[in-house]
Amino acid sequence: MIDKTAIIDPSAKIAKNVQIGPYSIIGADVEIGENTWIGPHVVIQGPTRIGRDNKIFQFSSVGEMPQDLKFKGEKTYLEIGDGNTIREFCTLHRGTGHDKSITKIGNHNLFMAYVHVAHDCEIGNHTIFSNNASLAGHVKVEDYVVLGGFSGVFQFCRVGAYSFISTNSVVIKDVPPFVKVSGYYAKPFGLNTVGLQRRGFAEETITELRRAYKVIYRNGNTVAKALEELQSLVSPEIQRLVQFIEASNAGIVR
Question: Is 81 one of the catalytic residues?
Fold first, then answer.
Protein backbone atom coordinates (compact mmCIF):
# COMPACT_ATOMS: atom_id res chain seq x y z
CA MET A 1 0.00 0.00 0.00
CA ILE A 2 1.32 3.42 -0.99
CA ASP A 3 -0.31 6.35 0.73
CA LYS A 4 -1.89 8.87 -1.64
CA THR A 5 0.15 11.71 -0.12
CA ALA A 6 3.51 10.02 -0.83
CA ILE A 7 5.54 11.45 -3.72
CA ILE A 8 7.15 8.78 -5.90
CA ASP A 9 9.46 9.63 -8.80
CA PRO A 10 8.34 7.84 -12.00
CA SER A 11 11.79 6.26 -12.38
CA ALA A 12 11.67 4.61 -8.93
CA LYS A 13 11.29 0.81 -8.94
CA ILE A 14 8.96 -0.34 -6.18
CA ALA A 15 8.55 -4.11 -5.72
CA LYS A 16 5.31 -5.78 -4.73
CA ASN A 17 4.00 -5.59 -1.17
CA VAL A 18 6.04 -2.47 -0.38
CA GLN A 19 4.28 -0.07 1.99
CA ILE A 20 5.03 3.65 1.85
CA GLY A 21 3.55 5.94 4.48
CA PRO A 22 2.07 9.42 4.33
CA TYR A 23 4.19 12.31 3.00
CA SER A 24 7.22 10.17 2.26
CA ILE A 25 9.32 11.09 -0.78
CA ILE A 26 10.97 8.51 -3.03
CA GLY A 27 13.36 10.13 -5.50
CA ALA A 28 14.76 9.19 -8.87
CA ASP A 29 16.84 6.03 -9.34
CA VAL A 30 15.63 4.36 -6.16
CA GLU A 31 14.89 0.62 -5.98
CA ILE A 32 12.97 -0.88 -3.05
CA GLY A 33 12.66 -4.65 -2.60
CA GLU A 34 9.67 -6.77 -1.65
CA ASN A 35 7.89 -6.47 1.70
CA THR A 36 9.84 -3.37 2.75
CA TRP A 37 7.95 -0.94 4.95
CA ILE A 38 8.57 2.81 4.65
CA GLY A 39 6.99 4.90 7.39
CA PRO A 40 5.63 8.45 7.13
CA HIS A 41 7.84 11.45 6.34
CA VAL A 42 10.79 9.39 5.07
CA VAL A 43 12.99 10.82 2.30
CA ILE A 44 14.90 8.38 0.05
CA GLN A 45 17.12 9.80 -2.69
CA GLY A 46 18.98 7.90 -5.38
CA PRO A 47 20.89 6.21 -6.70
CA THR A 48 19.88 3.90 -3.84
CA ARG A 49 19.15 0.17 -3.80
CA ILE A 50 17.18 -1.21 -0.85
CA GLY A 51 16.59 -4.94 -0.47
CA ARG A 52 13.59 -6.81 0.89
CA ASP A 53 11.97 -6.95 4.35
CA ASN A 54 13.45 -3.68 5.60
CA LYS A 55 11.69 -1.25 7.94
CA ILE A 56 12.47 2.47 7.69
CA PHE A 57 10.83 4.67 10.29
CA GLN A 58 9.65 8.25 10.16
CA PHE A 59 11.91 11.24 9.45
CA SER A 60 14.85 9.15 8.26
CA SER A 61 16.96 10.48 5.38
CA VAL A 62 18.31 7.68 3.19
CA GLY A 63 20.59 8.05 0.17
CA GLU A 64 21.15 11.78 0.44
CA MET A 65 24.33 13.33 -0.99
CA PRO A 66 27.36 13.06 1.33
CA GLN A 67 28.42 15.78 3.76
CA ASP A 68 31.83 16.07 2.12
CA LEU A 69 33.19 19.32 0.68
CA LYS A 70 35.09 17.29 -1.94
CA PHE A 71 31.83 15.93 -3.34
CA LYS A 72 31.01 17.64 -6.63
CA GLY A 73 27.81 15.90 -7.58
CA GLU A 74 29.32 12.77 -9.13
CA LYS A 75 27.06 9.73 -9.45
CA THR A 76 27.49 7.63 -6.33
CA TYR A 77 25.42 4.98 -4.59
CA LEU A 78 23.89 3.64 -1.40
CA GLU A 79 23.20 -0.08 -1.19
CA ILE A 80 21.17 -1.60 1.65
CA GLY A 81 20.59 -5.34 2.02
CA ASP A 82 17.69 -7.27 3.53
CA GLY A 83 15.96 -7.32 6.88
CA ASN A 84 17.37 -4.08 8.30
CA THR A 85 15.56 -1.84 10.78
CA ILE A 86 16.24 1.88 10.47
CA ARG A 87 14.62 3.87 13.25
CA GLU A 88 13.61 7.51 13.53
CA PHE A 89 15.84 10.36 12.24
CA CYS A 90 18.65 8.16 10.87
CA THR A 91 20.85 9.60 8.13
CA LEU A 92 22.48 7.16 5.68
CA HIS A 93 24.50 8.84 2.93
CA ARG A 94 25.75 7.82 -0.51
CA GLY A 95 29.44 7.36 -1.33
CA THR A 96 31.90 9.72 -2.99
CA GLY A 97 34.09 9.51 -6.05
CA HIS A 98 37.15 9.64 -3.78
CA ASP A 99 36.60 6.05 -2.66
CA LYS A 100 34.56 3.24 -4.25
CA SER A 101 31.60 5.57 -4.91
CA ILE A 102 29.31 3.48 -2.69
CA THR A 103 28.12 3.16 0.87
CA LYS A 104 27.19 -0.46 1.57
CA ILE A 105 25.03 -1.85 4.37
CA GLY A 106 24.49 -5.59 4.74
CA ASN A 107 21.63 -7.60 6.23
CA HIS A 108 19.72 -7.74 9.53
CA ASN A 109 21.23 -4.64 11.11
CA LEU A 110 19.50 -2.44 13.68
CA PHE A 111 20.04 1.31 13.51
CA MET A 112 18.39 2.98 16.47
CA ALA A 113 17.20 6.59 16.42
CA TYR A 114 19.53 9.38 15.21
CA VAL A 115 22.25 7.05 13.90
CA HIS A 116 24.49 8.57 11.21
CA VAL A 117 26.33 6.53 8.58
CA ALA A 118 28.55 8.77 6.48
CA HIS A 119 29.79 8.39 2.91
CA ASP A 120 31.76 5.36 1.72
CA CYS A 121 31.17 3.29 4.85
CA GLU A 122 30.84 -0.47 4.68
CA ILE A 123 28.72 -2.24 7.29
CA GLY A 124 28.38 -6.01 7.56
CA ASN A 125 25.52 -8.07 8.97
CA HIS A 126 23.75 -8.35 12.34
CA THR A 127 25.21 -5.16 13.80
CA ILE A 128 23.51 -2.96 16.39
CA PHE A 129 23.97 0.82 16.35
CA SER A 130 22.50 2.30 19.53
CA ASN A 131 20.95 5.77 19.63
CA ASN A 132 23.13 8.58 18.20
CA ALA A 133 26.02 6.31 17.23
CA SER A 134 27.89 7.85 14.30
CA LEU A 135 30.38 6.80 11.67
CA ALA A 136 32.60 9.25 9.84
CA GLY A 137 33.44 8.57 6.20
CA HIS A 138 35.23 5.48 4.90
CA VAL A 139 34.64 3.40 8.05
CA LYS A 140 34.33 -0.39 7.84
CA VAL A 141 32.24 -2.23 10.45
CA GLU A 142 32.30 -6.03 10.35
CA ASP A 143 29.59 -8.50 11.41
CA TYR A 144 27.97 -8.68 14.88
CA VAL A 145 29.46 -5.40 16.13
CA VAL A 146 27.61 -3.40 18.81
CA LEU A 147 28.08 0.37 19.04
CA GLY A 148 26.87 1.98 22.24
CA GLY A 149 24.83 5.17 22.37
CA PHE A 150 26.59 8.42 21.40
CA SER A 151 29.71 6.54 20.28
CA GLY A 152 31.65 7.73 17.25
CA VAL A 153 34.20 6.25 14.86
CA PHE A 154 36.76 8.43 13.04
CA GLN A 155 37.18 8.20 9.27
CA PHE A 156 39.06 5.28 7.73
CA CYS A 157 38.92 3.22 10.93
CA ARG A 158 37.86 -0.44 10.95
CA VAL A 159 35.78 -2.15 13.63
CA GLY A 160 36.32 -5.91 13.80
CA ALA A 161 33.65 -8.58 14.07
CA TYR A 162 32.03 -9.34 17.44
CA SER A 163 33.58 -6.26 19.06
CA PHE A 164 31.77 -3.90 21.43
CA ILE A 165 32.10 -0.11 21.62
CA SER A 166 30.69 1.27 24.85
CA THR A 167 28.55 4.36 25.32
CA ASN A 168 30.15 7.77 24.63
CA SER A 169 33.35 6.23 23.25
CA VAL A 170 35.33 7.85 20.44
CA VAL A 171 37.30 5.44 18.25
CA ILE A 172 40.35 6.84 16.43
CA LYS A 173 42.16 3.53 15.78
CA ASP A 174 41.10 0.12 14.49
CA VAL A 175 39.19 -2.07 16.96
CA PRO A 176 40.29 -5.72 16.64
CA PRO A 177 37.65 -8.47 16.45
CA PHE A 178 36.23 -9.82 19.74
CA VAL A 179 37.50 -6.83 21.80
CA LYS A 180 35.57 -4.46 24.06
CA VAL A 181 36.62 -0.78 24.03
CA SER A 182 35.58 2.27 26.00
CA GLY A 183 36.58 5.87 26.56
CA TYR A 184 37.56 9.14 24.94
CA TYR A 185 39.71 8.13 23.17
CA ALA A 186 38.68 4.47 23.18
CA LYS A 187 41.00 1.98 24.85
CA PRO A 188 40.69 -1.82 25.15
CA PHE A 189 38.87 -3.12 28.23
CA GLY A 190 39.03 -6.87 27.77
CA LEU A 191 37.38 -9.43 25.58
CA ASN A 192 33.73 -9.02 24.60
CA THR A 193 32.94 -12.15 26.60
CA VAL A 194 29.21 -11.56 27.04
CA GLY A 195 28.75 -10.92 23.33
CA LEU A 196 30.68 -14.04 22.40
CA GLN A 197 28.64 -16.17 24.79
CA ARG A 198 25.41 -14.78 23.38
CA ARG A 199 26.58 -15.67 19.88
CA GLY A 200 27.24 -19.27 20.88
CA PHE A 201 31.03 -19.33 21.00
CA ALA A 202 32.38 -22.40 22.79
CA GLU A 203 34.08 -21.85 26.15
CA GLU A 204 37.37 -23.27 24.86
CA THR A 205 37.31 -20.73 22.01
CA ILE A 206 36.67 -17.89 24.44
CA THR A 207 39.51 -19.14 26.66
CA GLU A 208 41.88 -19.14 23.69
CA LEU A 209 40.79 -15.64 22.72
CA ARG A 210 41.48 -14.49 26.29
CA ARG A 211 45.02 -15.83 25.95
CA ALA A 212 45.41 -13.98 22.68
CA TYR A 213 44.11 -10.76 24.28
CA LYS A 214 46.74 -11.05 27.01
CA VAL A 215 49.47 -11.55 24.41
CA ILE A 216 48.39 -8.38 22.60
CA TYR A 217 47.52 -6.12 25.51
CA ARG A 218 48.75 -7.45 28.86
CA ASN A 219 52.22 -8.92 28.38
CA GLY A 220 54.06 -5.77 27.41
CA ASN A 221 54.54 -6.88 23.81
CA THR A 222 54.84 -4.66 20.80
CA VAL A 223 52.24 -5.38 18.14
CA ALA A 224 54.87 -7.11 16.01
CA LYS A 225 55.98 -9.31 18.92
CA ALA A 226 52.38 -10.15 19.81
CA LEU A 227 51.65 -11.23 16.25
CA GLU A 228 54.74 -13.40 16.29
CA GLU A 229 53.59 -15.16 19.47
CA LEU A 230 50.09 -15.66 18.09
CA GLN A 231 51.32 -17.53 15.02
CA SER A 232 51.41 -20.74 17.06
CA LEU A 233 47.64 -20.54 17.67
CA VAL A 234 45.84 -21.86 14.61
CA SER A 235 42.13 -21.62 15.40
CA PRO A 236 40.01 -19.70 12.84
CA GLU A 237 39.20 -17.03 15.43
CA ILE A 238 42.85 -16.35 16.27
CA GLN A 239 43.77 -16.26 12.60
CA ARG A 240 40.97 -13.78 11.98
CA LEU A 241 42.33 -11.62 14.78
CA VAL A 242 45.89 -11.83 13.43
CA GLN A 243 44.86 -11.05 9.86
CA PHE A 244 42.84 -8.04 10.98
CA ILE A 245 45.78 -6.57 12.91
CA GLU A 246 48.23 -7.28 10.09
CA ALA A 247 45.98 -5.39 7.66
CA SER A 248 45.63 -2.33 9.91
CA ASN A 249 46.76 0.99 8.45
CA ALA A 250 45.55 3.18 11.30
CA GLY A 251 46.98 0.94 14.03
CA ILE A 252 44.88 -0.76 16.68
CA VAL A 253 43.48 0.72 19.87
CA ARG A 254 46.01 0.52 22.70
Answer: no
